[in-house]
Specification:
The chain is α+β, with helices and mostly antiparallel strands and 777 residues long. Helix 3 links the parallel strand 9 and strand 10. The protein is globular, with a radius of gyration of 28 Å. The N and C termini lie far apart (68 Å).
Length: 777
């Protein structure tokens, strides 16, 4: 009998044994028997309930066997997006009787480097949760995936919480993405192990897959998390500081090193390759194809490649304190604002508003062991957030431990002086570490330092009409045919132009970010904007009205349209008024071709409007697009963007660039830039490693170097920006709870030595590696 079919019997026996043990008062019996075994891989054949794609699986003895005589060996190939092994139940594995529980397994990494192993549980009723863990070489490691427990029933405002279970339970798989809301995973339909975008082939050995009842949670595991420096009170690690004197000593030592070492020798004034060939100098950054590879050219004509760090600003350094103000004036919004809430600096509340403060979330307040009294000199780093994108608190008071630490670290008579000290140190660091520019979202205070290249950015926000892609993660998509969108685009670009002031140190401008253009994995997600807009009334939707005109021009009569679409629309007026409802699964080729035409017309209008607004006010600077993502990018969008952007931009969170996702680069043949990637770990006091996980700080450095070199080696890419400069707050950034270890510096502004070492190694060889052969052509 298979382990799957044994599960109901074993579950019943386990529950019966628990009952007996409780009646007999047997200590520890519950911990040993409250378990549902699923697979121990002892049969001669692979389990019939197991399926795989992309991965190679086999049963074997030796390394990694933790129960019985053999275990499951899984080989994941390099650079894959669909490589997985899935265990699927004929009837759900029902663990309701266990109460709080976890799916656990033993895993050994037999490869040559760490593996970022991802897991997905799908349950009856449609609930599903994705988690992941980074495993160093070796093992076996006991890993668990929480199914029911404290961490899944509370929204604490963190992307994931510190472990609620004791260390003997093993390594916790960290939630990927946003924490699900009260997901019920007690009736498990499937469990999948997979990898994504790997930089090398990975091999693991898995054994003893089981569902286990949880022990009691760690009492107060969400209380007293943060010390007075914003660090974890739970963990000790090399980065951690214990006093203001130590913080100041570390600063003095670093400043002396920066002054002694200075910049890398092969750099031009603007960070270009001083030792390479010199092209036409225009006084501004531009793009040019040199031989068979794209390049940027700096204002003096030197070949240039942009390697930088994102988010060098104070906007995302604050975290909610659990306090709010009764004074409604703090939540006022000017309808002509051009900056979203998460991109604003720390905005202090008035003294009058702070008099109305009250504790709005006691559970949140308990996370901190220290926050300054309002009369404390560091209370100047309190602020107020009027809204949050994700999380249980819609608005409230925030505090920036990072800004407080800058004052402690560098000393200053005023916040303005502390900020200027930080700006100076930051530029010195970037130059010494070998980076050639800032990435996106750098504080405008750097724009006119005239020491270091930067990218400007803007957002088009306002009361224009919108459409929906069906997956509007960051918000609804704009209606670019609405005249108000064009007006707001010009308002935004004029503000950017006022900030830049035609400065030659500005490489170019990003407008907007990670918009939900569509996901080509399925027709419904690919053409979501079209599918969700066609039913609208053209009198209320400018995009719908524009599409009616396009279709009239193509088909002339409604009968011709009906013949192509297989529809029964009464008239063009009816089509304009009530539109067309797509039937899920209708793959009529003529219909889909028109969907593609309409989606491209929509994207074309968006990029045309933005391009023209920038061209009017910043004609000397490059337009760098919208930083598209794999989950929100379509061929139609890329084609439209390529007609207007000087450089295409993409955010790509994987272990390396790879080749699988980038076949379109040759088709559009445009210079391209990676706007975001990162990797983090959990060994520096933060409970979440970010989107791509490393096993520790040394591994982070190795993975960072691998990723950047994969971009440098691609002939279409002219830049790569890592997200981000500063770690997230331990208790989550106010905007959406991200509490990631993804910085090159900690919340105490202390650099991570392995990351700096890796950056210097990459950057010393940056230009010879990228452009060296050009001189031989």
């Amino acid at each position: 009998m298979s382990p799957l079919r044994l599960a109901p019997l074993l579950r019943g026996l386990a529950v019966f044994a628990l009952l007996v043990a409780s009646l007999q008062g047997v200590s520890g019996a519950a911990d040993s028997l409250a378990e549902i075994p699923l697979f121990s891989f002892e049969a001669e054949q692979l389990p019939s309930e197991m399926h795989q794609a992309g991965a190679t699986v086999s049963l074997g003895r030796g390394e990694g066997v933790t129960q019985g005589q053999q275990a499951l060996r899984i080989e994941f190939p390099k650079d894959t997006g669909g490589s997985f092994v899935r265990f699927k139940a004929d009837q759900p594995w029902d663990c309701t009787e266990l109460g709080p529980c976890r799916l656990a397994f033993d895993v050994t990494n037999t490869g040559e480097s760490s593996i970022h192993l991802r897991g997905t549980v799908k349950a009856a009723g449609g609930a599903h949760v994705k988690r992941s863990v980074s495993l160093p070489v070796g093992g076996p490691y006991q890993v668990y995936f929480e199914l029911l427990g404290d961490g899944l029933t509370k929204d604490t405002g963190l992307r994931d919480d510190p472990p609620s279970l004791p260390a003997e339970c093993g390594r916790k798989m960290i939630i990927n993405g946003v924490k699900p809301k009260y997901a019920k995973l007690t009736k498990v339909r499937s469990f999948e192990l997979h990898v994504a975008g790997t930089a090398q082939a990975d091999t693991v050995v898995v054994d003893n897959l089981r569902i286990v009842a949880n022990p009691p949670i760690i009492e107060g595991y969400m209380e007293g998390l943060v010390d007075r420096f914003g660090q974890s009170t739970r963990d000790d690690y090399p980065q951690k500081v214990s006093s203001e004197a130590e913080l100041k000593r570390l600063a003095d030592e670093e400043l002396a090193t920066l002054a002694e070492e200075g910049p890398m020798a092969d750099r031009s004034r603007f960070g270009g390759w001083k030792e390479g060939p010199r092209l036409e100098a225009t006084g501004y950054f531009r793009a040019e194809k040199v031989g068979d590879r794209w390049a940027l050219v700096d204002p003096e004509g030197y070949l240039y490649f942009s390697n930088g760090l994102d988010n060098i600003r104070m906007a995302n350094t604050s975290t909610f304190t659990g306090v709010d103000y009764r004074d409604d004036s703090v939540r006022y919004r000017d309808p002509e604002e051009v900056t979203p809430e998460d991109s604003l600096p720390i905005v202090p509340a008035s003294a009058e508003a702070m008099k109305t403060a009250y504790v709005s979330a006691e559970w949140r307040r308990k996370m901190f062991t220290w926050l300054p009294e309002y009369g404390d000199p560091l209370a100047k780093y309190y602020g107020y957030r009027r809204s949050a994108h994700k999380g249980p608190l819609p608005h409230g008071e925030v505090f920036s431990f990072y800004m407080a630490n800058l004052e402690r670290r560098y000393g200053a008579e005023t916040p303005e002086k502390a900020f200027q000290n930080w700006c100076d140190v930051t530029i010195d660091r970037m130059i010494n570490w070998g980076f050639t520019s800032f990435g996106n979202w750098v504080d405008p205070a750097f724009y006119h330092a005239n020491r270091y290249p930067y990218f400007a950015n803007g957002w088009i926000i306002g009361e224009f009409k919108t459409v929906s892609s069906g997956n509007d993660y960051w918000g609804a998509m704009p209606d670019p045919f609405d005249p108000e969108f064009a007006r707001r685009a010009l308002v935004t670009t004029k503000v950017v132009a006022e900030e830049v002031r035609d400065n030659p140190w500005c490489v170019g401008i990003f407008i907007d970010n990670e918009k939900s253009w569509g996901n080509p994995q399925a027709t419904k997600s690919h053409y979501g904007i079209v599918i969700n807009t066609l039913p609208l009334d053209a009198a209320e939707s400018p995009t719908k009205a524009a599409w009616v005109g396009l279709l009239k021009e193509k088909y002339d009569t409604i009968d011709a349209l009906n013949a192509a679409w297989g529809s029964q629309i009464a008239s063009w007026d009816a089509f304009a008024k009530t539109g067309y409802e797509w039937a899920d699964g209708d793959e009529n080729p003529k219909l889909i071709a028109d969907f593609s035409m309409l989606l491209e017309a929509y994207a074309d209008k968006y990029f045309h409007v933005v391009h023209d607004a920038l061209e009017e006010v910043l004609p000397n600077h490059m337009y760098l697009g919208v930083r598209m993502t794999p989950w929100g990018m379509t061929p139609e969008t890329r084609r439209a963007a390529a007609r207007y952007a000087d450089v295409m931009s993409y955010n790509y969170y994987r272990e390396a660039l790879g080749e699988r996702d980038w076949g379109f680069l040759e088709e559009i043949d445009k210079p391209s830039l990676i706007g975001e990637f990162h990797m983090g770990a959990t060994d520096a006091g933060l409970p979440h490693p970010g989107i791509v996980a490393a096993s520790d700080q040394e591994d982070r450095g190795r993975m960072y170097k691998t990723y950047v070199e994969s971009v440098i080696d691609n002939p279409y890419f002219v830049g790569v920006h890592c997200f981000q400069y500063i770690d997230s707050p331990l208790t989550g950034r106010a905007h959406d709870g991200e509490n990631y270890n993804i910085g090159f510096v900690s919340t105490t502004d202390v650099p991570y030595a392995p990351m700096i070492k890796a950056a210097k190694e990459v950057n010393r060889d940056l230009y010879p590696r990228r452009y060296g052969p050009v001189t031989d052509r």
